[in-house]
Write a structure and sequence with these properties.
about 260 residues, Glycerol-3-phosphate (1)-acyltransferase, 6-stranded mixed β-sheet, 8 strands, about 15% strand
Length: about 260
Amino acid sequence: MIHSFVRTVLVLIVSVAMFPVYLLLRLVTWSRGTRISLAENYSRLWFRIVVAIAGIKVRVIGSLPPRGALLAPNHIGYADILALGSTVPCTFVTRTEILRWPVVGFILKSLEQPAVERVQSRDLKSAADSMGAGLREGKTLAVFLEGTSTGGDRVLPFRTPVVQAAIDAGAPVVPVAIVWSTTDQCMDLADKVAYWKKAHDFGPHVWDFFSVSGRLAVTLTFTEAIPADFGDRKKIAALARDRIMAITKLPAGETLPRDPESFA
C-alpha cells in the first residue's frame, strides 16, 4: 500500500501546484481560441505527469488526430481518461452531476468541460448543440459513445446523437481502440482497471488502482479519421465501433454490463 500512498500524495502536490498557475494564465488570456488551447494543453500536461507518477506505460499506434476532431474510444473505466488525456490535447465530455461536486466541479468548469445530464438519447440530444459549438471552435472532444464503462469484455453500441453534432460541425470522427495489459498474470484487469459496477467504490478503487498501476500498460490505436460527410450518424457510429472491435478483438455487446456505472 506504500505505492498507493506515495502516488496519491504526489498527484495531490502536483495538482495543487499546477492549478493556480493555470488560473493565472487563464485570467490574462483574452482570446477564446487561446483559452481553449490553454485548457487542453494544461490538461494533457497534468495527465502526463499523473501517468508518469502512476508508472503506466502508454503506447500509441497511428497518427494523432487533427484539432477539432471528435474522438470516439471504447470505454473500460476512468483509467482510459488518464491514458488518452496524456496523449492528445482534448476535452472530455462528462456528466453534469460531476460539475456540481465541490472543488472538482470548479476545476472542470475552468477547463471548459462540456457535460450531459444522463446517457439517455434525449439528454444527449439536448447537449449535442453545445458539443457542436465546441467542435466548431476547434475543441477536440473525447466522448465515450458506449454511454458507460464496461468490464472490458465487449464493445457496447455507440450512441449517435453526439455523432450528429460532429456531422453538423463538419468535424471528423476518430475511433480510438484502448487495450489495457499487465505484466502480472494473476491480475484481474476487469477489477483493477475497469470501474464499471456498483460494487466499486470510487475512492477505494483509485487507491487500489494506484497500488498496481506500475504493472500496467495501455495501447491506444488511433484509426483513420472518418469524415463528417461519410454518411449519416448511424453509419459513422457503426463504422467507428466496427474498427474498434477489429483492433481490440472484443465482441459486440448489445446490453449494458452488470451493475453499470453511468456515463464517463
